[in-house]
Design a protein that fits this description.
single chain; globular; 8 helices; about 375 residues; 5-stranded antiparallel sheet
Length: about 375
């Protein structure tokens, strides 16, 4: 406690530091990562606690249960800022990446897109150079990933529902980046390992026999209105497995719990992620302007049933919630994540230049 006692007695940090160390750590663990990092600036004692390897290890374990939404504004690189929202703090954080992005030489006026995020690693796609840049916000490491075996890819070639970023649990800063693509009409898994700085590829095979799906990642290769082609990647199988979930059973009949999945396909949008699918139904709205305006009227959640291999109805958003989120829009996009029995979906829509963000959460175990 000597370092704490040397702090300025006129500040409130002195009283905080006199608390038991276990209580201080529990208080820090309740904060979001940007708030913890900011606490290092309070005094030397807190900086010492936060820099301790045991604290960092425990913090990494606890932070895995937190969920973040990141929005990257496409501005000139001298104003590169990531906006992050955490469900643990229920507020937005601004993360400047100006200095980090200066480590990469870009073409004049080139746009950079946020591709995917996991742990401390952010992947950006450069459209001009057709390159992927990995940024670690904690270690401040920035590097270009070598081109994949398919060659350099522009931003339009990357499909978020067909990729996965997996940081190593050891805290080493290494990661794996996986994506699936059709090559001569066959799904092929491409995997980059930052530790070896190399790519490898494996062709996916059709599923035969029992498939538990334990510890699997699901990457969508093709998505149709009634059928998808999904590649399952897991520790149980060295070879990626092909799944073909459909929105009907073997007799071609509608599944009993489906509410509106058989309406006109032009009135619905699909969002995929982690072996799940969100179906959004919309209806037209009268507009005096010469453009189409729609409004969300219903949302369903489906998941892949490993027994039948088809899409299985999970739940729908209650009417009272739809009344709150059913707003007019001109454009709408979304993302979906399923982890530890929790399904999280984010919808981002734009209407007359105003952006609206909706965060939905569903607990499959509790049915809420």
């Amino acid at each position: 406690m000597d370092q704490c006692q040397n702090s300025d007695p006129n500040t409130n940090s002195l009283g905080f530091c006199l608390l038991p160390s276990e209580l201080i750590q529990n208080i820090l663990f309740s904060l979001a990562l940007p708030e913890i990092i900011r606490m290092k600036l309070v005094n030397k004692f807190l900086a010492y606690v936060i820099s301790d390897q045991n604290f960092i290890r425990e913090c990494n374990l606890r932070s895995r249960s937190a969920t973040w939404l990141f929005v990257y504004k496409k501005r000139w690189r001298h104003d590169a800022t990531i906006h992050g929202f955490s469900n643990r703090s229920n507020r937005w954080f601004k993360i400047s990446i100006d200095d980090l992005m200066k480590q990469v030489i870009f073409y004049p006026g080139e746009d950079v897109y946020l591709l995917t995020v996991s742990g401390n690693v952010f992947l950006f796609a450069s459209n001009g150079q057709k390159a992927v840049i990995a940024v670690n916000l904690v270690s401040k490491a920035v590097k270009k990933i070598p081109p994949c075996p398919l060659g350099p890819r522009g931003t339009s070639s990357w499909r978020r529902f067909g990729m996965k970023l997996v940081p190593e649990p050891s805290g080493s800063g290494h990661f794996r980046f996986l994506f699936v693509e059709l090559v001569e009409n066959s799904p092929v898994l491409f995997e980059y390992n930052s530790e070896t700085d190399k790519w490898q590829s494996r062709e996916a095979k059709e599923r035969y026999g029992n498939f538990s799906g334990k510890d699997c990642m699901f990457l969508n290769a093709v998505n149709g209105p009634y059928e998808s082609l999904v590649v399952a990647v897991g520790s149980e199988h060295n070879t990626p497995m092909i799944l073909r979930p459909r929105l009907w059973n073997g007799g071609g009949q509608q599944q009993p719990n489906a509410m509106f999945s058989w309406v006109n396909i032009n009135d619905r949008r699909h969002v995929y992620g982690d072996g799940h699918m969100m179906i959004m139904r919309s209806r037209g709205v009268d507009s005096t302007q010469d453009r189409k305006v729609k409004m969300l009227s219903g949302i369903e959640i489906w998941s892949i049933c490993l027994n039948s291999g088809n899409w299985e109805y999970v739940s729908d958003v209650p009417n009272e919630i739809m009344k709150l989120i059913g707003k007019p829009y001109g454009v709408i996009i979304g993302c979906l994540e399923a982890r530890d029995g929790i399904i999280r979906a984010v919808l981002m829509s734009n209407f007359e230049g105003l952006w609206d963000i909706i965060w939905l959460t569903y607990n499959k175990v509790m049915g809420l």
